[in-house]
Specification:
Strand content: 5-15%
Strand order of the largest sheet: 10-9-11-12-14-13-19
Shape: elongated
Helix content: 25-40%
Number of helices: 24
Number of domains: 3
Largest sheet: 7 strands, mixed
Bound molecules: thiamine diphosphate, magnesium ion
CATH superfamily of the largest domain: Thiamin diphosphate (ThDP)-binding fold, Pyr/PP domains
CATH class of the largest domain: Alpha Beta
Distance between the termini: 84 Å
Length: 710
């Protein structure tokens, strides 16, 4: 007998799942009732009756309502089933129900063109995902975190998308997706397409800094992005009275020199027409615009929230505004659909939901282990054009590398603060704007996080960004964008995020705690980033060029003290693969001395002036850290000393020592040593700064002590 698959029966037939048990063979066996008979693909999907018309086409009401209602109903039903599965433990994390928001989600996304426009959606845009390309089956798989989920179970719930089709996968941090849409739309248009952006934020998320940064960026750079604010009166349990103090969130548009509008977000037609009008206007005059959709949230913030903070009166008022019944009525009113027609449409959707669930339940769990190859994308070229230059300073090597990259790669662009006419704070970008133009060497407003998001978004549509932080210290502004968003992008989406990030760093210049940090320790804590720390002009050139061609976010630390005080030749043979290795400066048999950044020079000088045979190394590639040549050196010398400029807990010295010891504790003849600054903020006055800063003298002193003990 065919299994009974009518709506509701599947979840009802499921056993309660203990939260500690993940879905496995045993559970699948219990699901025998939903056998393969359920797996026929539904002919009605994708929902094309009538076909959804994308911008610049526009639907009339009789065509709009069947499409809109079908999607809204599908979204509501599918999410209801996911909530049931959450209750029973099959869905992990949570479900942030879109109930009440479907009109806004459908109306805003229907004119947008999948694969052409740049879109980022939020946690109440389930219907918009379905409209822009996700299938119900994929959505269920995502929530069940199985092997077929769009993120392969690597991210959960609403944190997904389709980067290959410009529906950028969401991260949790509200506001952070907005700047990606600005950068993506900017880059898509730069490469010759008439693309538009759609980015979504809630009333709560509108208080984040990135909301402001993104609107400002889009306005300054004239990028036509529609910023939809879904105002459902609450941010989790916080009412809008505690969130902002203006009349309407769309009024903020004035501050960015753009237009803004507030509409009824529970009326799908009103949202749809407002979005079509906004797209028409953005085509005429490419500027961003704010569309505030006043909507409702019919459930708690998420599956675990009973929303006891919402009064019954409020609930009743919102229930009346539920967009689903009102759209259903309009479907019947404008399309001549009778009740039985509507019911059979709903039955078709219910069947679609059921089929997606049944199919998803048969999918295997994702396979551990997760390897490094799933974190880093491969495929950078093996070799590029060679390059030579005689007697250049480190800062000039930076300039040559950037010039080389911009010259040979039309999709590359350089951005940051004052990189244009001024040539960047340390003059490393001098003249680049004259040689490559203001559309490739681009000054940004002061918004490091927004700039990083902009670059990440641009990288998704084929642009190749190079971002300079004016000082490494300001990179902390972009910790989420770079450390959590860009770094995990490939892991979550399967699409590389090629970014070259430059960090002028380090102390010794009397600049105090906010302009002297290196931050290689901080950035090494984020999986998915590559870190390079060159110390000579040759290394600087190589690091920048290899980091640029690599398909991952690569950070190059450029020590400011070395910019104009170190010189040497550049002889780059074009072999990119051989760049990614530790560097040895002297050979020796008594001690392995490891140094980074400006400490390399101090270490070499100490090694040259001491009576012992010291082998000086620079790991150069700080992440992923491969210490095998350094371990081999210690095997020969039996002694290890690491010198870092920053305080003991801030750098990578401890990690280097730990890795060498763990590789083979027997190779050490004596205790390994770390030379570092004291663990205090970098002080300003020269006497204070130099007091604890390692120098060739202090290194020499420690070398002598260590070797005297032999
Ligand atoms: C930066 C950040 N802080 C906190 C959270 C936790 N969080 C997730 S959704 C949410 C409420 C968002 O409210 P709103 O922007 O109004 O969207 P809504 O949920 O109402 O649709 C909060 C606090 C988060 N995701 N990101
Ligand atoms: Mg809200």
């Amino acid at each position: 007998m065919a299994p009974n698959l009518d709506t509701g029966s599947l979840a009802a037939s499921l056993p309660e799942l203990h939260p500690a048990i993940c879905l496995a063979g045993a559970t699948l066996a219990q699901l025998g009732a939903v056998g393969s008979a359920a797996l026929k693909p539904h002919p009605a999907y994708p929902l094309s009756s009538p076909a959804v018309v994308r911008f610049p086409g526009r639907l009339a009401k009789p065509e709009f309502y069947p499409a809109a209602y079908t999607l809204m109903y599908l979204s509501r039903r599918l999410e209801a089933r996911l909530l049931e599965l959450y209750e029973k433990g099959y869905v992990k994390g949570t479900v942030t129900s879109s109930a009440g928001n479907e009109a806004a989600a459908v109306g805003m996304s229907m004119p947008y063109r999948p694969g052409k426009d740049i879109v980022s959606l939020l946690h109440r845009d389930f219907a918009a995902h379905l409209l822009l390309g996700a299938t119900p089956y994929q959505m269920v798989c995502q929530y069940m975190a199985n092997a077929d989920s769009p993120t392969h179970g690597r991210e959960g719930n609403a944190h997904h998308g389709d980067a290959n089709n410009r529906r950028l996968p969401m991260i949790s941090h509200l506001g952070k997706m907005l700047s990606l849409v600005v950068g993506g739309t900017w880059a898509a248009r730069r490469h010759g397409g008439e693309a538009f952006g759609l980015s979504v934020i809630g009333d709560g998320g509108s208080s984040t800094g990135e909301f402001h940064e993104s609107l400002n960026l889009a306005s300054v750079h004239k990028v036509p992005v529609l910023f939809v604010v879904q105002n459902n009166h609450y941010s989790f349990s916080t009412p809008t009275s505690a969130q902002y103090n203006c009349r309407r969130l769309s009024d903020r548009a004035q501050g960015y020199g753009i237009s803004g509008r507030t509409i009824d977000g529970t009326d799908a037609w009103e949202v749809y027409t407002a979005v079509c009008e906004a797209l028409d206007a953005m085509r005429e005059n490419p500027l961003p615009t704010i569309l505030e959709c006043m909507t409702v949230r019919l459930h708690g913030h998420a599956a675990y929230d009973k929303a006891e903070y919402i009064t019954q009166q409020q609930r009743d008022r919102w229930q009346v505004r539920d967009p689903l019944p009102s759209t259903r009525r309009k479907l019947q009113e404008f399309c001549g659909r009778g009740e039985s027609d509507t019911v059979s449409l709903e039955a078709m959707v219910d069947e679609e939901v059921q089929s997606a669930l049944s199919k998803a339940f048969l999918v295997a769990r994702p396979k551990p282990p997760v390897k490094r190859s799933s974190v880093f994308a491969s495929s950078s070229p093996a070799a590029v054009k060679p390059y030579q230059a005689k007697k250049v300073k480190n800062g000039t090597a930076v300039n040559h590398a950037l010039d080389y990259i911009l010259e040979n790669n039309p999709r590359a662009f350089l951005t940051g603060l004052d990189v244009g006419t001024y040539g960047s704070a340390f003059k490393t970008c001098k003249g680049l704007i004259d040689r490559h133009g203001a559309d490739r060497v681009i000054d940004m407003p002061i918004c490091e996080s927004g700039t990083m998001g902009f670059a990440l978004g641009a990288s998704q549509v084929g642009a190749e960004p190079i971002v300079e932080f004016q000082f490494a210290d300001f990179s902390t502004e972009a910790v989420t964008q770079l450390g959590l968003n860009a770094a995990t992008w490939y892991f979550r989406s399967g699409r590389p995020a090629p970014l070259l990030v430059r960090l002028p760093c380090g102390g010794g210049l009397t600049m105090g705690a906010f302009h002297s940090g290196e931050f290689e320790g901080l950035w090494s804590r984020f999986t998915g980033l590559k870190l390079l720390y060159p110390a000579t002009p040759q290394e600087t050139f190589e690091a920048l060029v290899a980091g640029y061609y690599d398909r991952n976010p690569c950070l190059v630390f450029e020590h400011k003290l070395l910019y104009w005080s170190t010189s040497g030749d550049i002889d780059f043979d074009g072999d990119l693969q051989s760049v990614w290795r530790a560097r040895r400066y002297t050979e020796g048999t008594d001690l392995t001395l490891v140094a980074m950044g400006a400490m390399v020079r101090e270490a070499i000088s100490a090694a040259e002036s001491c009576p012992y045979s010291v082998e000086v190394w620079n790991p150069f590639l700080l992440q992923p850290l491969d210490l095998s040549p350094i371990v081999e050196s210690v095997r020969k010398t039996g002694r290890l000393m690491v010198v870092q400029e920053c305080g003991e807990t801030q750098g990578l010295g401890d990690r280097i020592i730990s890795l060498v010891v763990r590789a083979d504790p027997a190779i050490l003849r004596c205790r390994p040593e770390l030379i570092s600054a004291p663990d205090v903020p970098i002080p300003f006055a020269p006497e204070l700064e130099s007091y604890g800063r390692p120098s060739n003298e202090s290194i020499l002193d420690r070398i002598e002590k260590m070797l005297r003990e032999k």
